[in-house]
Amino acid sequence: MRNYFIVFDNIYLRFAGLPSIIHLLIQFVAFLFWLRDFFVPTLEKNITKGCE
Q: What is the tens place of the pLDDT at every residue in 25-35?
């Protein structure tokens, strides 16, 4: 599983002058990507099992 949090934190450190609310938004987007990567493969497995 790719660690979006580390990637986004590294980007954020380069723009350390940004307000913290932008940092929170970046973390939220990273979390959404993580959720998608985590749940989509399991959903696809369950759907294909149900169709068999």
A: 888 888 888 88
Query: Cβ atoms within 10 A of the Cβ of 42, count?
Result: 9
Residue 18, Ramachandran bin (φ over 0: left; ψ between -120 and 50: alpha; else beta)? beta
Model confidence band, residue 22 (pLDDT cutoffs 50, 70, 90): confident
Contact between residue 28 and residue 8 where contact means Cβ atoms under 8 Å apart: no
Q: Is 48 left (phi over 0), alpha (psi -120 to 50) or beta?
A: alpha
The full set of domain ranges for the chain reads 4-51
Q: How confident is the model at residue 7 (pLDDT cuts 50, 70, 90)?
A: low
